[in-house]
Known about the structure:
The complex is a heterodimer of chains A (111) and B (351).
Chain A: H1 22-35, H2 43-56, H3 60-72, H4 77-110
Chain B: H1 6-9, H2 16-24, H3 36-42, E1 55-59, H4 85-97, E2 102-106, H5 116-125, E3 130-134, H6 138-142, H7 149-155, E4 159-163, H8 169-176, H9 180-193, E5 205-209, H10 220-235, E6 242-244, H11 251-259, H12 263-272, H13 276-279, E7 287-290, E8 296-297, H14 300-304, H15 321-324
Parallel strand pairs in B: 1-2, 1-7, 2-3, 3-4, 4-5, 5-6
Antiparallel strand pairs in B: 7-8
Amino acid sequence: MSKTYYDPADLKKFGKITEWSEELGNKFFEYYGKVFEEGALSAREKSLIALAVSHTEQCPYCIDAYSQDGLQRGITKEEMMEAIHVGAAIKGGATLVHGVQMMNKINKLDG
Amino acid sequence: MATKSLHKKGSDLANSNRQLEILSNGIFQNGELPTFKNKISETSQFPLKAKKLEILQINVGYMCNQVCDHCHVDAGPDRKEIMTRDTMKQCLEVIKNSGAHTLDLTGGAPEMNPDFRWFVEEAAKVGIKDFIVRSNLTIIRANKKYYDLPEFFKKHNVHVVSSMPHWTRGKTDKQRGDGVFDKSIKALQELNAIGYGIPNSDLKLDLVYNPSGAFLPGDQMSMEKDFKKALLDDFGIQFHNLFAITNLPISRFLDYLIASENYEDYMYQLVEAYNPTAVANVMCTNTLSISWEGYLFDCDFNQMLELPVNSKVKHISEFNEDLLEGRNIVISQHCYGCTAGAGSSCQGEVT
């Protein structure tokens, strides 16, 4: 067994998940491809969303993939970093908005 | 940022045989990745054969005022290889007699050849349909003697094709040198001012985009849209088409890939993006590349790798269109650069 959980070379093998469940794997990749096509959102906008979500999901494969995808699309590093801040703001906000729940509870118990 | 050519530095990679060795060894020798020959054989496209000649691309010398990081020519101020007027005369004979509809002058900075203007004047008289000069833009601002180049181009109805790696200063200067962005913008504005690049203008101005690192170019049409918007909004600049060109793993770009430990990943990217449809339209099938000494090559990349045409005719002095047509194109693994994604050529995508 590998001594680390993540190996960058595994990203190239992503397609192999289909081998153990062909129909579901194929449906997933077909869906995945369709999602990233130009639509109501541009492929460029989708790439930035994917990059931000890659970070909030903390997926190293996705971060590698969408950093490279952004470069290929001519997206600047400033745009990419701002996208990550959007993800970080939502992550931080999601934590902090629960502070209201804490306040409700404290107020109820100790009001 | 590079300041000297690989040749001047005496680098191992200045040697074309060394480059070809690297491209044939390692991951291509141990079978991890298929060789280009095996890959195109899968779709019965080997051997690649030259079709009717359409484009004559003449490299008038490797001297350049810039030393770009990824230059496949290894051009720079320290390169002294320059086409002579005698060789130019031989080229003119070929231009007159060949059926090619496009003449494409490149370098180095072609304008630095002392006989450049004479050659353009003479070649323009032949009345070729599309007469391209690949100008790096900064040359126009490099020295007073070049300030009138836009007017000179206009006078001879030259189609100007220029490199512009990005619409931001940072990315451009990183690849092409400090101050290149500002000078390029100024040169583009001057070209626009005399009618180049304006919608519906006959004075054609196209830009070439190539990635600033170890990644492939994105979709040409989307990039063109982004470039047009940014250059118009920020600087009031207009141009006609954007050509997205893939960096081929040779010369200074190969040196960069190896030094940055990106070589293998980059070759994987190229092979994974291999597109058999692009093979049918690669530029070597309708182009002939002529070196500063007058030797013939299937493309500018093969010229730099010193891989001459596979034909009895080797030199411009022996030019024979019939003998050259149908020749087998000389290939190696660098050819994957022209068949990745939507394909790549000196005219951009090929599919």
